[in-house]
Design goal:
- The chain is of the alpha/beta class.
- Strands 3-2-4-1-5-6-7-8 form an eight-stranded mixed β-sheet, with helices on both faces.
- It is elongated.
- It binds guanosine-5'-diphosphate and magnesium ion.
- The site of guanosine-5'-diphosphate has 18 residues, from α5.
- It catalyses: GTP + H2O = GDP + phosphate + H(+).
Amino acid sequence: SLSDRLTATFKNLRGKGRLSEADVDATVREIRRALLDADVAVPVVREFTAKVRERALGAEVNEALNPAQQIVKIVNEELVAILGGETRRINLAKNPPTVIMLAGLQGAGKTTLAGKLSKWLKAQGHSPLLVAADLQRPNAVKQLQVNGERAGVPVFAPHPGVSSEFESATGDPVAVARAGVAEAKSKLHDVVIVDTAGRLGIDAELMKQAADIRAAINPDEVLFVIDAMIGQDAVTTAQAFNEGVNFTGVVLSKLDGDARGGAALSVASITGKPVMFASTGESLDDFELFHPDRMASRILDMGDVLTLIEQAEKNWDKGEAERMARKFADQEDFTLDDFLSQMQQIRKMGSMKKMLMMMPGAANIRQQLENFDEREIDRVEAIVRSMTPHERVAPKIINGSRRARIAKGSGVHVSEVNGLLERFGQAQKMMKKMAQGGGIPGMPGMAG
Ligand code: GDP
Ligand code: MG
């Protein structure tokens, strides 16, 4: 995954304070690979990474995040923006019925979506009508009727219930669509969903039929349904449908599969149209509003890292960080109070173990992490609290009898006090090294 691959990059970047061109390029290269792995179309990847690179180079130094995290954050923001920012809702007509037309290749999931969408709308208090304007496939009308029945939504078809009469393109889909909308009006349905025919590939005849239906019923929404597994073909397909029927929104289907969802980015980027819904299975309930932010992390395959970035930013105590930075700059001594304060900062960011496990590169220290006990922070706190102020800034004076007193005061064994002092000594050494290296670490206390 991208997390794994960024590990190396993160390593090189750790401890650096600003984004150099080389840092940015190294990270952007990994982002490019992740996008290609997610099947984002090549020209889209090229344009996208160029934009990210430009933004990253101009980015201000963010003290809560290390450079690679900053770039990931920029990438995420750009992905969300292209995918439509906020989830877009259906445009409801001022004068009902709201007419929704479905378009897309055969097998994309239109007829299934018609059932899902109608069920969803019905649950929200609408009274939808489904219209079977796919007269191309022998079983298409029947399939919509089955879905309508499951959804508890009526279906308008040329000869309702007798699908065998439509074994070829005998009916006129444009006339059926028009009659269906008229039926919705007369029966006071406030939404009408028109299912249309698809082909296995783009062809002129199919596109003309879809365009004719669009012209005849003047829909409020034309939803382009696209299979998330389509991969690199997403661009040509989306372009053809965008030119052919000028769709208003995109539905991504079969997101329950392995697809990382690159098609969403390709389609949205090429057409500028928002992705509105996600279809995630064969049952009518496998349907949800599309969330650009969730899709962005799926495409990046970095949900965990994004959560970490969010938490780090939210919980980063700016005052405390600045105090530490000043301390290092002044070459002041790192005290047990500082040690405790660092641990408390980390705890503020959430479960320490969980957080550490999310860090790219955690694989290297996974064994240690698994043995890590969060209650350890409580013990450290108790032990430090049992020390006198003088002991905390000058731990060298903590001799045997003081150790025994501290252990007794904090309710731990003397060996735990010894262990703490030993770890503190290591942290102190590390902090000194870092101060000489001229900078604070991206995550204080991480290496402690
Ligand atoms: P249409 O030709 O565009 O009308 O596509 P259909 O609605 O007939 O769907 C084609 C096939 O894909 C059917 O077997 C559906 O059950 C299946 N399908 C549709 N949507 C989804 C989905 O979100 N997930 C999965 N796993 N299968 C789906
Ligand atoms: Mg169909």
